[in-house]
Protein 1
Amino acid sequence: MKKIILIVSAIGLFSCNNEKNKYDASGTFETTETIVSAEANGIIKQLNLEEGQTLQAGQHIGYIDSVQLGLRKKQLEAQIKSVLSKSPDIAAQTSSFNKQEAVIQSQLNTQLHEKQRIENLVKADAATPKQLDDIKGVVDALQKQLEVIHSQDIAQTSQLTTQTRGLTGDIVPLKVEIEQLNDQISKCNIINQVNGTVLAKYAGANEMASTGKPLYKIADLSILVLRAYISGNQLSSVKINQPVNVLVDDANKKYKEYAGTIEWISNKAEFTPKTIQTKDERANLVYAVKIRVKNDGYLKIGMYADVKL
């Protein structure tokens, strides 16, 4: 009877050992962790997040004090208005010259008509040549006056245009500075950029923030990556996008099975990490692989798992 018990126990122990060795590689779960830092200097007025909280990309979670930036922007806008107020009214100046030209042109048209009438009278011996010469003198004077006004109009317009361009050039750097301030003000809003779970919180409301200061750490836990190691003998039996079975210990000391997909295979060998066990001896060279596994909520970063190829 004792012999039978011993045999059964041995078989059971052998079965347990066999069960535990039904894997081809081992590793730990990891994911891409993102540390979100402040992009502005100032007091954190609001930061609505807690460790373990799930955030969506584009979600507004707080802001940094931007009062001084806003005041500086108003100051620059006032400077621009002051500079523009010195701009000449080219349209008004042009309109004034146009009115003068219109008056002279009207007088010239009248005198040209009178000249034509006197020429006809001279031909009919009803007017003297002196009268014709006098009217020609008036017409010439009006034409010269019209040319002078037109030249003055062109010169004045050119001068005012140059002056306006100079003032416009003066406000260009002010506008660029306003754009810089708008960018800085926008960065005072703390916008989460990654879908994921908050792993750690480094700052809170009413604390001083500076550019580059870490605020929180976040990672997408919906998909975890198992970094495992395979021997050189196994390398020929794996490929990218190959489905594999991932085994995780559950509370009943059994394996919980997950579907995984190989997404990366190292192109160089390395010595097995001390914390990893493979089918071959630890001293042998192995290759790292990354296996994507959909997380049902039970998988955690740093958790050990085995892989069945």
Note: The first strand starts at residue 25 and ends at 30.
Protein 2
Amino acid sequence: MRLLNFDDSHIDASTQEKIRKLLPSAKDALDNIINKNCAGSEYTGWFNWPKHGGFDLVSQLQDFKDSFDTYYDLILVIGVGGSYVGTKAIAESLGHQYVTTLSQYPDHAKECKKPFTPIVYAGQHLSETSLIQLLELLDKFQPIINVISKTGTTIEPMVTFRILRKYMENRYGYKEAQKRTLVTTDEQSGALRSIAKDKNYSAFPVPSDIGGRFSVLTAVGLLPLALAGYNTEELMAGANQLFSELLMPMDDTKVHPTAQYAAFRKTSWEAGKRIEILAYHEPQLSALIEWWKQLYGESEGKNGQGLYPVGHCYTTDLHSLGQYAQDGCRNLIETFLTIKNPNLSNLAGLENRIRIPHIENNDDGLGYLENRYLSEINQSAMEATKMAHLEGGVPCAEIRLQTLDERNIGYLIAFFEVSCSISALLMGVNPFDQPGVEQYKKNLFSILGRD
């Protein structure tokens, strides 16, 4: 059974017909990805990665974790773009949103069925204020750091790493800091690979045929997630299920949601739409939306092409940006990412539902909601929003995930990677390069006086 459904019932009939006509082209694009006949095919190692190396990596990382004899209660990931945002997407989607606070109270930590080690992030910007505050946080914990950069030349993570490795050496001494520093970088070469070799840091490879924004299921994401206690085998199993579905024969009666979503986006572009809102109703998905934004923005946004990806958290954003979505310029489409059965467990891992309580005098006027689950009201708000925005002239689709756990998130990650690649190919651009990102780097190096 598929873990995800694509619902186009809130799209008008004429657009649905255009999507159906585009599906053969979407399936051709998928075949070209599978057969490595597409633009950028040298960077399609992520497709069917679980079978090609993912499951082996899960086993290797578990062995490393079992043999890692240094105590830690905080993981610091240093990276920018695809080097950190996928890790954060998975960790925050599945973890307790107050894990860093709870971890400071041992009695609470003991109550957790899944006591995930907190992960914090640095190197995604150049803010001195943020780094000062991070150093103050590190002083309260026993951290390990994982610096991630394929080339080792990206200025944000490498400047941050220079500062933090000095901090670790000053705090722990050279040998202890060496144990607490992990490197994820190119398999063979690059500045960070040379540093790792010189300092004898434990080093993990980024496959040469997988680009940063497609790398979350490699050591880039799985190393910190495994060390934090997430079930990386289930993450890989979910992704493997998606790829296995796509490798089965497909005909017009077995259209996969990856092709449907890509065709919806291309059809919308041809109709003059220029913005896609990915709307979500569980705040813990906010980092996942940031990962999605990078994936689509870097993959499609070339040569004047591509829908601009933005995220709206409902119902929060209904009281601000919802006005624009309802009544602003009609150059947008909206995709709702909904969770059929949200994870409703408490610290002990037990289901813990919240109903609207009875109040005797009904002084707030909410008596009509009594005894309903809060999640039911939340989902009703999403349905009402879809109806309203469709009436306001916004084509609306829905991606419906079964639940929030490692297997479903692994499936969703693979779904977006495949559908994004198909969508970019339909737009006529290489999904796997990012020439626009390199231009600011050249300017920055020039301003700072790098030779």
Note: The chain has a mean pLDDT of 92.
